[in-house]
Design brief:
The chain is 32% helix and 27% strand. By secondary structure, the protein is α+β, with helices and mostly antiparallel strands.
Length: 369
């Protein structure tokens, strides 16, 4: 147990009791009556989160939940949820809050978040538990808040979270506390930063949203180096949209751009999360596929071909469909990027000569040759 600098938390002042049952969807209205057996709750259509004192008995046909029901529901939520009184003392803390922050309910109940608990800061590292506290502002003016901030985990590191604070009101309309929900946004922020970084160095094709040629070339260089150093093999698909000029001539370049996006999205859905897809130029795309067994490459190429063939775009009363021709080959440790791309380009051209909408695969070379 951490040292709070006192033997026990100070007793709470008498104030309207806030229980976890107060947290409900904003489109619902909660009526709470405290009895010796605990609070009784009614969920009614209405607006806001309201805790009127002395509410009447639930009427027939209205949905009732008891305190234990709501505690169980809140503990099942993936997000963190905690409730404070008007003095910002924590009176409820769910399991999601413990999972994200590392703090157990027994360690935080009766304390304030600034008492060595979450100690929120903004992106610049400036503390928010004083004048910048969203929860304090929501209690002060009764206006909900939300934002992206950083909490301090029990182990000391910072965790990015998206928070939403909703003030809680008593039956007379006065704010008597607040409920804050927060979700770990580590992965979301990492993904956004990666996209921003790639865009900043011009690695994303602005039309299709996949990698551009520069990104593809650097990926191929990196994979070839890994193949030579560690033996991590990979395959390459090179593909071209069949009769794409006819699409542009008949429907215009705007529709042609939509077709390019459709093909790119279909291919992205055909690949695994760690495969690479890039636009090589015009209507050409390249896929870099880490795999140990070259025997799997034909099936993957065939899936890409079939899924593109099965895609279509509605343009007015017309339906635009396209196919692709592919060349596929496993990389060799003796390859260069230029040599590897010439090989798969030649294989793709063979698919064109043979009638389009097909795959031509380079036979896998025996090991050691």
């Amino acid at each position: 147990m951490r040292d709070t600098g006192r033997d026990s938390p100070p007793p709470l002042r008498e104030s309207p009791v806030i229980r976890p049952a107060t947290l409900v969807p904003r489109e619902s209205k909660v009526l709470l009556r405290t009895t010796a057996a605990g609070p009784r709750i009614r969920v009614l259509p209405g607006a806001g989160v309201v805790l009127p004192a002395g509410a009447g008995e639930p009427r027939a046909g209205r949905f009732e939940l008891n305190d234990l029901d709501l505690r169980r529901i809140l503990d099942e939520l993936h997000d963190g949820v905690y409730v404070t009184d008007v003095e910002r003392r924590i009176v409820y803390w769910n399991r999601g809050a413990q999972r994200i922050s590392g703090w157990a309910a027994a360690e935080v109940l009766g304390t304030r978040c600034a008492d060595g608990i979450l100690i929120h800061v903004n992106e610049a590292g400036e503390p928010l538990c004083g004048a910048g506290c969203p929860l304090s502002h929501a209690i002060g003016d009764g206006v909900p808040r939300e934002g992206d901030i950083y909490l301090r985990h029990r182990e000391g590191h910072r965790v990015p979270v998206r928070t939403r604070v909703q003030p809680l009101r008593g039956g007379d309309g006065r704010v008597i506390g607040a409920v804050e929900t927060f979700a770990d946004s580590t992965e979301e922020l990492a993904a956004l930063r990666q996209v921003e970084e790639l865009q900043a160095i011009a690695f994303i094709d602005p039309l299709t949203g996949v990698g551009n040629r520069r990104h593809a070339e650097q990926t191929l260089h990196a994979r070839l180096e890994e193949l030579r150093r560690y033996g991590w093999s990979f395959g390459v698909l090179f593909l071209d949209i069949d009769h794409f000029k006819e699409v542009n001539d008949e429907f215009g370049h705007e529709v042609g751009d939509r077709v390019l996006r459709m093909v790119a999205r279909t291919l992205s859905g055909s690949l695994r999360s760690f495969d690479f897809l890039g636009r090589w130029g015009g209507e050409e795309f390249v896929c870099v596929i880490p795999m140990q067994l070259g025997s799997q490459l034909p099936a993957l190429a065939a899936r890409c071909r079939a899924l593109v063939e099965g895609s279509n775009l509605r343009v007015g009363e017309s339906t635009v469909r396209v196919t692709i021709s592919l060349g596929a080959s496993m990389a060799d440790s003796s390859d260069t990027v230029d040599g590897l791309m010439r090989r798969v380009d030649d294989l793709m051209y063979e698919s064109k000569v043979e009638g389009r909408n097909r795959v031509t695969v380079q036979p896998e070379r025996p090991k050691g040759r």
